[in-house]
Specification:
Elements lengths: L2 H15 L6 E7 L3 H13 L3 E7 L1 H10 L2 H17 L2 E6 L12 H18 L5 E6 L3 H7 L3 H12 L3 H12 L5 E8 L2 E6 L6 E3 L6 E2 L3 E4 L8 E6 L3 E3 L1 E3 L2 E6 L2 E6 L4 H11 L8 E8 L19 E6 L5 E6 L5 E6 L4 E6 L2 E2 L11
Parallel strand pairs: 1-2, 1-3, 3-4, 4-8
Antiparallel strand pairs: 5-6, 5-18, 6-10, 7-9, 9-15, 10-13, 11-12, 13-14, 15-16, 16-17, 18-19, 19-20
Length: 363
């Protein structure tokens, strides 16, 4: 057993989940992540928790989607939601061996499956429950990122196997930079976006909301009424069923008004179908966040939102769409506005504009 897998399992079980006697823990994974799933199973059992282990074939699920039978897809997710209803804690392991396989799934089928998955998530996010989404490196993810499997594994474990107690302290220090800020402006190449925070407090993705591993961000959620207006360009690819590159979103009063990418037309059409529906269910800016993980790399773009000095925007709609878009901030900045009109730079050229002792600002 790779000792890094064991260490990751210990961090997830003890730091993220805090698994203990009386808990019912659901572990949901593809077969590629079997080593991590088995380690988590053993550790959580040793902590006194009951464990529901659901390890399924990715090929079987992809085949189900390729058939496109909504009744069968709904039946598959019904089983997942039944398991979720029994658990008070859950670990969802992201572990695709061939992420590109879904690029050819019809857009309507893929959108239906994404809605079913969001219903599954909603159960796990109910009050009193705890859900952790954890990445597991595979050869498919390495190929997707243009890296060798060994390099991808090293990059991933470098950003995950950290002292999370210390990281949590650093995240809190960065969160303090936003204290007193009531509005933000993101500026950069093809980017000028202004939004109000509406009194929403910053949330530290470390210990306060351990829903990701690797972790590392400060974010503002529940931003539907933020009146975000302007444009923002994202130089980091985003994967949501299909792969999108160089996305550019335009917002008006918090609502997505236009979206463009440089991806193939079928991918672009799918994104427009999700974010620009022809009905009364517009997509809106739900979250804005800032990466704090100094060990993270944007090359692992599925977790690029954690990379230090990045900005990400979460876009949602009422049908369950939830997409995070990420941009680096080289040649860009984030300005915070306080009550009364005074302003200060918070992030500039990928570095938080703060005293040198803050993480990542060392010379």
């Amino acid at each position: 057993m790779d000792e890094r897998v064991t260490r990751l399992a210990e961090i997830v079980a003890d730091w993220s989940l805090e698994a203990k006697k009386g808990d019912v823990v659901l572990i949901d994974a593809y077969t590629a992540a079997r080593p991590l799933a088995d380690e988590l199973y053993s550790i959580c059992r040793n902590r006194g928790a009951k464990v529901l282990l659901e390890v399924v074939s990715e090929e079987a699920e992809d085949h189900l989607l390729s058939i496109g039978n909504q009744q069968r897809i709904r039946a598959r997710f019904k089983k997942k939601t039944e398991l979720a209803s029994q658990a008070n804690k859950a670990v969802l392991i992201e572990s695709s061996e061939h992420p590109e396989a879904r690029y050819n799934i019809p857009n309507e089928t893929l959108a239906f499956a994404e809605r079913m998955e969001e219903e599954f998530y909603e159960i796990l996010e109910r009050p009193g429950r705890r859900m952790v989404i954890v990445h597991f490196p595979t050869q498919g993810y390495a190929m997707e990122a243009g890296m060798s499997p060994a390099d991808y594994e090293k990059a991933f474990y470098d950003m995950a196997l950290l002292d999370w107690r210390e990281e949590s302290r650093k995240i809190k220090e960065i969160a303090a930079l936003f204290r007193g800020v009531v509005a933000l402006q993101v500026q950069g190449i093809d980017t000028d976006l202004v939004l109000k925070l509406n009194g929403n407090p910053s949330i530290e993705d470390g210990k306060e909301t351990p829903i990701n591993m690797p972790a590392g961000e400060v974010y503002f959620g529940n931003m539907k009424g933020a009146s975000a207006t302007g444009v923002i360009y994202f130089d980091v690819p985003v994967s949501y069923g299909k792969l999108f590159k160089n996305a550019r979103l335009e917002f008006r009063d918090g609502i997505v008004k236009s979206v463009k990418t440089t991806s193939p037309r079928t991918h672009d059409n799918y994104l427009q179908m999700l974010l620009l529906p022809p009905d009364d269910d517009p997509a809106f800016l739900e979250e804005i966040g800032f990466g704090t993980n100094r060990s993270a790399s944007t090359q692992i773009y599925r977790w690029a939102e954690k990379a230090y000095g990045t900005v990400h925007v979460g876009v949602d709609n009422a049908r369950g769409t939830n997409i995070d878009f990420v941009r680096t901030m080289k040649n860009g900045r984030v300005v915070g506005y306080e009550r009364g009109g005074s302003k200060r730079t918070i992030l500039e050229d990928g570095r938080f504009f703060a005293p040198k002792e803050l993480p990542g600002n060392e010379s």
